[in-house]
Amino acid sequence: MYKSRIRLICYGLLCVSTMISVGCRNHPNDTTIANDVQQKIASDPDTKDSQVAVSSKEGKVTITGNASTPAARQKIEKYANEEPGASGLDDETTVGPSAPGAAGAAGAAPAAAPVQTAAAPPPPPPPPPPPIVVPAGTSIVIRTSDALSSKTSQEGQTFLGSLARSVAVDGKAVIPSGAHVTGKVVSAKAKGKIKGEGELDLALTSISWKGQTHEIQTAVLENTVKGKGKRTAGTTAGGAGAGALIGGLAGGGKGAGIGALVGAGAGFVGGAATGNKQIEIPAESVLTFSLAQSLTLPPGTASGSSAEPDRQTLPPPAAPEQ
After folding, report:
1. Using a CB cutoff of 8 Å and minimum separation of 24, what contacts does 66-74 make?
2. Residue 220 has what pLDDT?
3. Rounded to whole angstroms, how far apart are CA atoms 181 and 175?
4. Residue 48: domain span
């Protein structure tokens, strides 16, 4: 009886030892646990884009890395918790886009932006046109708007007029006919009844067109009447010298034909001596002045038309005084 008990106890211990040994052989180790969880994550379409790493120590699963979405993170935790042999979970994952360098696992990388070729620099602008220079000695032919007289005009008095013909440079009109001009009386002296001489000296000071006024300097146009009806005319400061009387006052009134004193290539002054030998220049008289200094105009101020020949008609020469 005693021996039978001994045999029964030994048999029981043998069975328990066998069960423990079988149980130990069937319990998964840490490597198996980590590999199984990692494989499940990689094969699931919802979690395969997550960049995570799985490890296990004594059955406790630790997961690190980046889960692609919150739903993917929940599935990863589920796989770890349900893994046979796992005794706990430490989830250290974050949720967000895949980190750089993981594009191969997350999907195809976006197409590279097209390379933009630098545009060729624009060509340099053309050089600005040169200024226009009206040389000294150019004739400025005007028609007066005001009547002038050696008896009534005063030194420094301003008179007005307009260009009777355009001013040209190299055959191209640069100042149009009709441009407004301003002049001044340089000297005015009435002739005495018995002796002395009358004087009326004029010069131009400015010319205006297209809303712009340009200062100019011309030679002084002199006109003198001496005793016994002798008259002379000429220019100073670079003028052409004396002129010859070729016309006289015809009809006497605004718009009437007016004679002219014509210098040799310089200026001429319309007018005649009255009965008391005063110098009278009626309105609408044609006078020619000469530029004493060149006039520089900015580009673009030229009128742009070809110079036309002077078409003004002068009255025929009057017979010399007796």
Report:
1. 66/93, 66/94, 66/95, 66/96, 66/97, 66/98, 66/99, 67/93, 67/94, 67/95, 68/95, 68/97, 68/98, 68/106, 69/95, 70/95, 71/46, 72/46, 72/47
2. 92
3. 11
4. 29-97
Residue whose token pair is 């599935």: 75
Residue type, 232: T
178 and 261 share one domain: yes
Residues of the chain with pLDDT under 50: 21-24, 99, 101-108, 194, 229, 235-275, 307-322
| pTM to 2 decimal places | 0.48
Specify whether the backbone of 229 is left (phi greater than 0), alpha (psi in -120 to 50) or beta.
left
H/E stretch holding 33: helix 30-43
Q: Which of 298, 287, 143, 133 is nearest to 210 (CA)?
A: 298
Pairwise CA distance, residues 80 & 92, whole Å: 13
- Looking at the structure of the chain, the number of domains it has is 2
